[in-house]
């Protein structure tokens, strides 16, 4: 699985791994933005054995199920996976009753089942079936509708006792459990409400006398273009939370009170390990703002980079109504649109020199490197390119299917990467066998290889083709970097004055974001983690001339990097 992750993702950064207890019962609670890949990444980044809670629907799938069984995952039936469209339509809803027309409630609905009615924000739990066209429901919120014609689905009540027993046994044995409390995966910029199941698991495991305390560790899986091949991900493990014994005593007396308290605590901790924003546009602006910030500390580690992202996200959430903050982010959005119109990125605008000879040197150096890396990657791209197109087609088909069947997904991009990886397990081995056969035929009929020489050459091809395919991916990465440098220098020749204007805009934005972070960074950091002294305070030390010094150093080193020195 580690190899699969390394091939699909260009960069995997793990932050806070030391927060995971080495021994004793632990539940790792992950955010869920990338379907099956979330579990894979969590599994390879946790330095101890985990048993994952997995939807029974996925557990019985061919490829996913194979890996799930090998990892001793615990299947759980999700009610939404068993939902069926009800006969007839809902005509009206009173304070305690649902009235249908042409419905068959006595045949299709049982007490405890839920009705998911169109335009009603929550599921209605059936208390009693009165007739084919009438049920009594129980809900904290009363919904009233009349003269309606609403479609609905029936979600059956499921006995999850066996699943909970399996989880409790694992926790009481001092083992670890991985779970995604939001339920299904999604591609929203904010978290979905987390389910109570994780609370029942942890509190239930501690009910036995002398039971070990259960630790809960939040895990934020923060993706940068999650659906893209060779994208990036930061896996952030927050501080471990030991479930208090006092809460277990409360659970014995009032399950609802104890679950509500623990649920709020888990949700707060999960929110602290993810970068969120009200919309995708605002999220991209936050990422760009982070790129614009130049810290006092010259070289940041991945964990410090991620910490700054979180500080900006939290600071924006708390201060987004401030006129100055609003004005700044509007300028960031405008700047982003301008560089995208020229098909550039911020790092390119930052690096481009005003000295003509430097740009000429970088252009020709990038051209040479692009040709070299491109030539090496080209055969693999020609052979594997059609496979990539097929996989993209299949993943897009899966995305549309998932979007049509979901009420919470925005574009359903959360299923794309998983479909690409799952499809690759079938398509690439099959293609490798086909290429091996073609290679053997060419050697035998056109080159004249026979006997041992033919068999040895075929064996070498089988062994080295997968390795070359991986090296081809790395070469393609390098070729893409050099292509961007080429394009940037070409654009500079055509739109020289416009790029210089963008650089002036960028310098102004850098000063503004630097002031914002230095003014508010320490306060926000304390809110992120009470023990803020574990982080390097140099990130927020006020400076006089360091901004100019850092910009000069960045410019010098980026030039050397681009020309391969």
Structure description:
With 565 residues, the chain is an alpha/beta fold. It has four domains: 2-77 and 160-271, 3-Layer(aba) Sandwich (Glycerol-3-phosphate (1)-acyltransferase), CATH 3.40.1130.10; 80-155, Elongation Factor Tu (Ef-tu), domain 3 (Beta Barrel), CATH 2.40.30; 280-342 and 496-562, no CATH class; 375-494, no CATH class. The chain is 55% helix and 14% strand. It is built from 18 helices and 15 strands. Strands 1, 2, 3, 4, 12, 13, 14 and 15 form an eight-stranded mixed beta sheet that branches. Strands 5-11-8-9-10-7-6 form a seven-stranded antiparallel beta sheet. The longest helix is centred in the C-terminal third of the chain and has 49 residues, at 356-404. Residues 530-565 have low confidence and may be disordered.
């Amino acid at each position: 699985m580690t190899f699969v992750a390394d091939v699909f993702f260009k960069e995997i950064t793990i932050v806070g791994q030391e927060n995971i207890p080495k021994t004793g019962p632990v539940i790792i609670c992950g955010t869920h933005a990338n379907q099956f890949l979330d579990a894979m990444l969590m599994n390879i980044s946790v330095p101890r054995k985990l048993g994952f809670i997995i939807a029974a629907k996925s557990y019985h799938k061919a490829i996913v199920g194979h890996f799930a069984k090998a990892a001793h995952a615990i299947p759980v039936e999700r009610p939404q996976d068993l939902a069926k469209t009800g006969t007839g339509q809902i005509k009206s809803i009173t304070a305690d009753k649902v009235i249908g027309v042409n419905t068959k409630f006595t045949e299709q609905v049982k007490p405890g089942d839920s009705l998911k009615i169109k335009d009603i924000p929550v599921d209605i739990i059936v208390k009693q079936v009165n007739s084919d066209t009438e049920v009594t429901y129980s809900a904290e919120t009363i919904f009233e509708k009349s003269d309606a014609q609403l479609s609905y689905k029936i979600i059956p009540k499921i006995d999850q006792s066996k699943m909970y027993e399996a989880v409790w046994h694992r926790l009481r044995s001092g083992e670890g459990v991985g779970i995604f409390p939001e339920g299904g995966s999604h591609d929203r910029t904010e978290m979905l409400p987390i389910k109570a199941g994780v609370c029942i698991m942890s509190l239930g495991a501690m009910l036995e006398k002398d039971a070990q305390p259960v630790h809960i560790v939040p895990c934020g899986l923060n993706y940068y273009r999650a659906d893209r091949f060779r994208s990036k991900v930061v896996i952030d493990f927050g501080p471990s939370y030991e479930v208090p014994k006092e809460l277990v005593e409360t659970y014995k007396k009032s399950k609802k009170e104890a679950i509500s308290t623990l649920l709020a605590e888990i949700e707060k901790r999960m929110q602290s390990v993810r970068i969120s924003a009200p919309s995708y546009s605002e999220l991209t602006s936050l990422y760009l703002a982070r790129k614009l910030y130049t810290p006092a500390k010259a070289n940041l580690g991945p964990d410090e980079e991620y910490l700054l992202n979180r500080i900006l996200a939290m600071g924006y959430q708390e201060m987004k109504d401030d006129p100055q903050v609003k004005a700044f982010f509007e300028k960031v959005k405008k700047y982003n649109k301008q560089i995208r119109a020229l098909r550039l990125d911020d790092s390119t605008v930052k690096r481009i020199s005003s000295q003509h000879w430097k740009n000429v040197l970088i252009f020709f150096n990038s051209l040479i490197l692009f040709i070299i890396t491109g030539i090496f990657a080209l055969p693999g791209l020609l052979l594997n390119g059609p496979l990539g197109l097929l996989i993209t087609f299949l993943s897009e088909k899966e995305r549309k299917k998932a979007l049509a069947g979901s009420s919470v997904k925005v574009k359903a991009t959360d299923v794309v990467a998983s479909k690409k990886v799952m499809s690759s397990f079938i398509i690439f081995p099959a293609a490798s066998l086909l290429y091996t056969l073609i290679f053997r035929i060419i050697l035998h009929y056109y080159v004249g290889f026979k006997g041992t020489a033919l068999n040895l050459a075929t064996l070498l091809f089988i062994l080295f083709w997968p390795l070359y395919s991986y090296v081809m991916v790395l070469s393609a990465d390098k070729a893409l970097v050099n292509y961007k440098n080429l394009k940037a220098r070409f654009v500079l020749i055509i739109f020289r004055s416009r790029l210089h204007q963008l650089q002036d805009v960028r310098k102004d934005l850098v000063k503004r974001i630097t002031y914002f972070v230095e003014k508010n960074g320490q306060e926000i950091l304390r809110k992120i983690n009470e023990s803020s002294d574990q982080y390097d305070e140099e990130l927020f030390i006020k400076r006089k001339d360091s901004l100019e010094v850092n910009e000069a150093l960045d410019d010098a080193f980026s030039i050397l990097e681009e020309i391969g020195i």
